[in-house]
Automatic annotation (TrEMBL):
Keywords: Amino-acid biosynthesis, Arginine biosynthesis, Cytoplasm, Lyase. Signal peptide: none annotated. Residues 362-429 form the Argininosuccinate lyase C-terminal domain. Its main location: cytoplasm. The keyword Amino-acid biosynthesis applies. Residues 6-299 form the Fumarate lyase N-terminal domain. This is Argininosuccinate lyase. It is an enzyme of class 4 (lyase). Belongs to the lyase 1 family. Argininosuccinate lyase subfamily. InterPro entries: Arg_succ_lyase_C, Argininosuccinate_lyase, Fumarase/histidase_N, Fumarate_lyase_CS, Fumarate_lyase_fam, Fumarate_lyase_N, L-Aspartase-like. Coiled coil: none annotated. Pathway: Amino-acid biosynthesis; L-arginine biosynthesis; L-arginine from L-ornithine and carbamoyl phosphate: step 3/3. The gene is argH. It catalyses: 2-(N(omega)-L-arginino)succinate = fumarate + L-arginine.
Length: 438
């Protein structure tokens, strides 16, 4: 069940065999592994390293393995060391001795780097698709809910905004997340195939051919770099961590807003859960789990950075750990993007409660200062005047718009009746660049 063994006198310990094995993790690379092998064999034939007939037999064998795996006729046998071993040994079982020629001018080191790059290129696009789906849902939710709500800084009511503008902030975060993934995919778009174990090969192989055949922009220039680089995984794990950070912030807001304290939204029953003891409870578990899973995605990033940080060139077995971290983060990010989208679809926005909240807490104070500035008061002086007005209102337990004109004029004789229109919350959003939030 191994591709090596000649130079050993003793058998590997069972413990070591289990410890060393990666098939249960890397089996999901079977398609990329086979496609990479087919391109490699085509190249070997083109370079007269294998005969046409040998090439045909190996390629047919590889295609039959792929077909049978995809149709459930062949199961990946976990007693092999890794997916590369499984494919090569299954090939030899199927087509005989000629299968043993597949690994000419190749190592598992360039093979595994190739498989991962091909897999990431495919899955990176899936993540982008999910981001775009979520963006569409966010934009629709925003369009449907153009209502005013309190905007916060320091979690204190600050100024009036719209629900649409607030939720659309996440749309733009996701837009940048997409660019980060695309950038990561662009940087990794160089084929490692042909770097072999670390030092290339004495064969005159055509690396450009396999690079082109497999859809890469070019080949990696340096052999040692080609097989020992894992930046491309770290780059994607970092982009995934940032996506999760964004989803976690949104989750946090959904959790806060669905509490009785805010009461701005209701998360639909289908993304909440109940309590085994408290019959009244409806808990925002979907959002909490997204927030919680952010920790494991950050963890995977830090784990791989730490694994890689002191590795001498070139390949070291430590690097086998990369896949578990990557796959776990990939699955988690896709799940969370999907769950967030589905949860947002059913989200009920409580317009009246948001409007009520806008009307408490002097969210128009800045606009009163703007009003005074328009009448010629320097902003710093206007700021002080409105500060005094706020203190006055706090003492009386009223809002600024509830003050009589005579009361307001005690603070500045420049204040006229037109102030009430100016500081009306709906009107505020029709002024200057604030219209953008509508
Ligand atoms: N399972 C290995 C990994 O994921 C494949 C490469 C093995 N290379 C080696 N030199 N043992 O890294």
């Amino acid at each position: 069940m191994k591709l090596w063994g000649g130079r050993f006198r003793k058998k590997e310990s069972e413990l070591m065999d289990k410890f060393n094995k990666s098939i249960n993790i890397d089996k999901r690379l079977y398609c990329e592994d086979i496609k990479g092998s087919i391109a490699h064999v085509k190249m070997l034939v083109k370079c007269n390293i294998l005969s046409e007939d040998e090439g045909k037999k190996i390629i047919n064998g590889l295609n039959s393995i792929l077909y049978d795996l995809e149709n459930g006729k062949l199961k990946i046998d976990a007693s092999y060391e890794d997916i590369h071993t499984f494919v090569e040994m299954t090939l030899t079982k199927r087509i005989g001795e000629v299968g043993k020629k597949l690994h000419t001018a190749r190592s598992r080191n360039d093979q595994v780097a190739l498989d991962m790059k091909l897999y990431i290129k495919k899955k990176g696009k899936d993540v982008i698709d999910e981001i775009e789906k979520l963006q569409k849902i966010i934009a629709k939710k925003g369009e449907e809910n153009p209502y005013i709500m309190p905007g916060y800084t320091h979690l204190q009511r600050a100024q009036v905004v719209t629900f649409k503008h607030h939720i659309m902030a996440y749309y733009y975060m996701l837009e940048r997340d997409k660019k980060r993934i695309l950038n990561g995919l662009d940087i990794l778009d160089e084929s490692p195939l042909g770097c072999c174990a670390l030092a290339g090969t004495t064969y005159n192989i055509d690396r450009e051919y396999t690079a082109k055949e497999l859809g890469f922009k070019k080949c990696i220039d340096n052999f040692l770099d080609g097989i020992s680089d894992r930046d491309y995984i770290i780059e994607l794990l970092s982009a995934f961590s940032i996506i999760m950070m964004h989803l976690s912030r949104l989750s946090e807001e959904l959790i806060l807003w669905s509490s009785k304290e805010f009461n701005f939204i209701e998360i639909d029953d289908n993304f909440t859960t109940g309590s085994s003891i408290m019959p009244q409870k409806k808990n925002p578990d979907g959002a909490e789990l997204i927030r919680g899973k952010t920790g494991r995605v950050y963890g995977n990033l830090v784990a791989l950075l730490t694994t890689m940080k002191a590795l001498p060139l070139s390949y070291n077995k430590d690097m086998q750990e990369d896949k578990e971290h990557f796959f776990d983060s990939l699955d988690t990010v896709i799940d969370c993007l999907v769950i967030m989208g589905e949860m947002l679809k059913g989200l009920k926005v409580k317009k009246d409660n948001m409007i009520k909240a806008v009307r408490k807490g002097f969210l128009n104070a800045t606009e009163i200062a703007d009003y005074l500035v328009k009448k010629g008061v320097p902003f710093r002086d206007a700021h002080k005047i409105v500060g005094d007005i706020v203190l006055y209102c706090e003492d009386k337990g009223i809002e600024i718009e509830e003050m009589k004109i005579q009361e307001l004029r005690q603070f500045s004789s420049l204040i006229d009746e037109d102030i009430y229109d100016f500081i009306d919350y709906e009107n505020i959003l029709n002024k200057g660049i604030k219209k953008k939030m509508l």
